Amino acid sequence: MAMNHATRDYLLPCGRDVEQIWDRLDEVDAGRADQHELDCPHCRATRESLRVLRGLTRELAEDDAEPSPDLTSRIMSAIRAEVRRRELVPLASPEPGEVQVSDQAVAAVLRFAADSVDGVRARRCRVHRSDEDADPLAVNVELHLAIAHDFDGDSLEVVRERVTAAAGARVGLRLARLDLTVEDIYDA
To answer: What is the pLDDT of residues 161-170, one digit of tens each?
Structure first.
């Protein structure tokens, strides 16, 4: 049984191939090992690692636990955010010319900043240039959140501070406007 084409011809210091050790794993476990397989520390260590890998793989394959709906929805939100390409946001640069970054990349940084507050999960984030501000590095942000049921309402100010700080320190943008919308409550 071949493990993976990428590991083919991966030789251990003793000269044996990892594929060969994988293929003979059951034989060795059944007591049909040659002298080299019994004595070689490289083969023994590799065999032990492969046994652990095989055991963990079996355990994962037998696990019938379903992921939580929240986990699935968060993964799908991230995937949807990556698929859609909206606009580019200008960044400050010491070099001549304009540097732009995807609004999705900026949104990811801002969502991460919001997620750093206990009891907050960032959902959707939309970043776009500020039409009412002359500063080319000013953006408007709409950030949708889910909060824990025991969330302290004053902590929304902490979310606002962290998102604003991340926009300036991590990305180099100034928030002209930050709209926070709490759209869901979850059990912590």
So the answer is: 999 999 999 8
